[in-house]
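Q: What would this complex look like in 3D?
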Amino acid sequence: MAPDASPSIAVSARLSVARIGKRQILHEIDLQLAAGRWSAVVGPNGAGKSTLLRVLAGLLSCDGRVLLLGRPLADWPGRERARCLAWLGQQEGGGEDLRAWDVAMLGRLPHRAWLAPPTAEDQAVVAQALRAAQAWELRERRLAELSGGERQRVLLARLLAVQARVLLMDEPLAHLDPPHQADWLATVRALVAAGATVVSVLHELNMALQADDIVVVRAGRIAHHGAATDAATHQALQAAFDGRIAIRQVGDDWVALPRAGAREAA
Amino acid sequence: MSSALVAPVVNAPASAGMRVAWLAALLLALALLGLALGASVGSTGFDSLLRARHDPAAWQIVWDIRLPRTLGAWLAGALLGLAGAVAQGLFRNPLADPFLLGSASGAALAVALVFAVLGAGGMVGGGASSAALAQLASPVLARLGFTGAAFVGALAGVLLALVLAHGVQQTLRLLLAGVIVGYVLGAVRDLVQLANPDVLVAMQGFTLGVTGFVGWGACALMAAVLAPLVLAAWAMARVLDALALGEATAHSLGLPLAPLRALLIGVLALATGAAVAQTGLIGFVGLVAPHLARSLARCTHGPLLLLATLVGGLLLMAADIAARVLIAPQELPVGVLTAVLGGFYLLWLMHRRTQPDAGT
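A: Here is my prediction, written as structure tokens for the whole assembly.
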């Protein structure tokens, strides 16, 4: 089955269980993520958000089926899948001796023939990605010489250099200061405007409320999936965090506020 | 997606290629210099070199002993340097060693068994022992020789680690399996030696590392192994680059990790086995060479593998020459020298790494 050229659903998963080792992390998942939208996956610590993202990326096998652009993920040839679906892991370590430029160039691997040197197009795309991630100035420096936030921007550039239609990011804002979080937000919006699908696991609820859709994960199940502006989504969010946050509107934006003393009240 | 980003003016950073090419040329030139020096140094000093044209005995010393052992030291060091760079990339651990996967303990056990079976205590190294074996041993063992036994033992050690780790899928499991194989086979070797005390003296040479018995045949064998392994490792260098960011990232980039990892482990095992079979257990070269190569150039694994190979060769060649010179006319076991020098280098590296880093 060939991938749909312009499917309405970018990624879908229907599975009974997903395990890490012998421990069941996800149960009865039925999720469809719309193409050309930004979906934020949120939930308490240990809810299974990162596991869900790994299942969607094909990094973790499960009892069920994951479709990418309408085609079973397992049926995609590796390089073709890698050109279509890009992944940014949670606080990727290692690579300390690699320069930022070389790390971003890794994003071009799915596009390059084996043993072929980078083409002018590869170099242009990598330069573009580094600039978009505000990491161009870091290109000559080794990862070992970068701060956590700088490193995260370089890794984001690697993700962008893939030029994938579907981008999965696990905690992409880790270590980023507020200005660079705003840059990330602008990049994601530009990607979505250009037709890409972005799925990001986020702990920053205020950032998640800027997304098109929110997937609330709780205790290994999808507790809610809806538009970020829906009242039902806000209620699900508050319930997922045991009422210890409140969603309020400030101007045109929705924000999540911590509710002091809510634990004692509960 | 690309239209979402601002079109840039490409100004890619300078490639490390030219620097690496210059460094490689320099390291090769130093190796040639070392080869000339190695041909000149020995218990008879420069005299043999000066008389080599007219004196058959001096010619034999230079051509049949000094040159092959010097070149053999370079080749064994190059194999260990290559194996070290592959091991450190594959296991994402700068302290990974080519002997980690059980190859060293497998080779040592195989050699101890051959010594014990033949009762050939007192022989060390491949060349001399192979000749003696032809007279002594059963036909099969004679054909196999000590070098063959070491090679087979190294591969068997790696295979055992692979079996225990259920393949190459999980790097950490493989690493632990290698450590377990090392301990268990080491214990079996101790038992073999305990039961056959005559073996102890002969095994000493093997475990300390010996370059003195390397002949042209051993050189040809190591060169024949080194050339394709360097090419194979270089061809898979981008896999090591991707693995540096984690297995999930490498997988997401569309790399068929399982077969590529198996190939890299094959390179690691063959390179280590070939070196160990000819020179015994020479430690620290495989560990230190990649670190020295990294300090020479900031580069990806492609150039790094080449530089680590050249640095490893130069290191062991220099150690071999120093082992002949330091207490001449006696010789130091070259493995002792590499261990001492390597230990001091790592100590310095550790001291340097504990200094405040540039990262903020």
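A: To summarize the key features: Chain A has a mean pLDDT of 92. Chain A touches chain B through 63 residues (CB under 8 Å).
Q: Very helpful, thank you.
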